[in-house]
Amino acid sequence: MRICDWPKAERPRERLLNCGPGPLSDAELLAVFLGTGTRDRSAIDVARELLSRFGSVSALLAADRSTLAASKGIGPARFCQLSAILELTRRGLREEMGRRDALGSPGAVRDYLRLKLRDLPHEVFVGLYLDAQNRVVADEVLFRGTLTQTSVYPREVVKQALAHNAAGVILAHNHPSGVAEPSHADEALTRALRQALALVDVKVLDHFVIAGNAAVSFAERGLL
């Protein structure tokens, strides 16, 4: 049955307009995005099949163009739309961190880092540089590594902190293995970076380990 043949109050788009996006299921939200289905399947059918194939919303959004192109209901135009939505979300969170105290909106920091790092197939090490009001003035991928490790040089982290006239920094790196637990090497590196940055009066405010949708905070663990 086509969605237009459903009772009006049950159609995803009308439910979103009347109740907001919160009550809608993942499939319903995706159906609203798709707009239309195929000749023999409604948008909600296509949405359910996509979510079943990829296993989760995050996996669907992280899929590359060739993988999505093999899925019925997702062509180049919709791939571009999905990519644009993700990038707009990243930029919106980045702007929020630039306007507000990053420590006062930890959810935005976590969400931004998850969107930035969670789906990368290799390790990267990121620095969010903050001013004296804890607003993010720059964020950079400082080092890139392999599937299992990244070489991080404190001197370069300090150099960039000075270049941005930063008062503080939030560090982050990802674990492509999917396990967000900090390793002993992660803890030792964080101590070394804290000591190096302290010499130029830059404070390490947190260090996040990102793996999938998980984000472990060193500050919350008492590791700083």
Give the percentage of residues in beta strands: 15-25%
Low-confidence stretches: none
Helix content: 40-55%
Label the overall shape.
elongated
Provide the residue-averaged pLDDT.
Answer: 84
Radius of gyration: 21 Å
Structure description:
With 224 residues, the chain is α+β, with helices and mostly antiparallel strands. It is built from 10 helices and 5 strands. The protein has helices spanning 12-19, 26-34, 43-54, 57-62, 65-69, 76-99, 106-117, 154-163, 184-198, 218-221, and strands at 124-130, 136-144, 168-174, 203-211, 214-217. The protein has a 5-stranded mixed sheet with strand order 2-1-3-4-5, with helices on both faces. The radius of gyration is 21 Å and the shape is elongated. The mean pLDDT is 84.
Task: Provide key terms for this protein.
single chain, 224 residues, alpha+beta, 5-stranded mixed sheet, 5 strands, 47% helix, elongated
Give the SSE layout.
Elements: H1 12-19, H2 26-34, H3 43-54, H4 57-62, H5 65-69, H6 76-99, H7 106-117, E1 124-130, E2 136-144, H8 154-163, E3 168-174, H9 184-198, E4 203-211, E5 214-217, H10 218-221
Parallel strand pairs: 3-4
Antiparallel strand pairs: 1-2, 1-3, 4-5
Question: Nutshell version of this structure?
Answer:
The chain is α+β, with helices and mostly antiparallel strands and 224 residues long. It has helices at 12-19, 26-34, 43-54, 57-62, 65-69, 76-99, 106-117, 154-163, 184-198, 218-221; strands at 124-130, 136-144, 168-174, 203-211, 214-217. It has a five-stranded mixed beta sheet, sandwiched between helices.
